[in-house]
Amino acid sequence: MTDEEGKxxxxxxxxxxxxxxxxxxxxxxxxxxxxxxxxxxxxTLPQAEAVLKAIEEEGRTALFFNVNAGxxxxxxxxxxxxxxxxxxxxxxxxxxxxxHSLAFGTLRPYLGQGGVSQAxxxxxxxxxxxSLVYWxxxxxxxxLMGEGGRIFAMTSAGGRRVWAxxxxxxxxxxxxxxxxxxxxxxxxxxxxTVNAIEAGVTDTPALRKIPGWETLVExxxxxxxxxxxxxxxxxxxxxxxxxxxxxQWMTGNVIRVDGAEGIAG
Length: 265
Prior knowledge:
This protein is α/β, with parallel strands linked by helices. The chain has helices at residues 18-29, 45-57, 72-89, 118-141, 167-187, 213-223, 232-242, and strands spanning 8-13, 32-38, 62-66, 95-100, 150-156, 193-199, 254-257. It contains 7 helices and 7 strands, in the order E-H-E-H-E-H-E-H-E-H-E-H-H-E.
């Protein structure tokens, strides 16, 4: 498989599980080669290996990096490798899609015993929000993505809701949406769109780390007109459609993908 075949490349931050996993596989089906960034120890590494295999079974190339996407050194390493690959293949600017789907943060109350520390708050905001800006800076600076590029970031209704111990992550989601708007404004002249995808409640490993997640699932299933939760595949298919060149005029939005869960009573 050569880089010239297919629709170009997609960079998936958080590629081994949840929305990132489903989107990597769906975009491979749609014709994209995949650069996957994930952080897995030995116990969960088979998840990433399974995603890589699924991509290759679709006839696409997969380049995976087991690094911390929140660290500057990892960001440089991955983007330099992409840049070198494009230079070797003569495919500059071949990165067509980037998905930010990083769900690593602190779930603690603000006050009382066990309250969130400054370091924990800053880590959560850095990984789940600010890293979108830093990855976009690196991608654009190196010329990896050009006109027609699509950048997506995963948000949730949690950016507006209050839930026990959810404060740091809620703040990160709100900041992420602000970053999406600002990046959309600054990248519009380059022909690159930036949108946030607000999924409905989805049973992912990240959701199960939230205290009281069972109640969130029960309420979402009751409220959703379709009587079921959103799935990672629902979101992945939407991202694949929105990556089409004909969506150029959609940018700076928070797009709900939830089967009307968000508007139901």
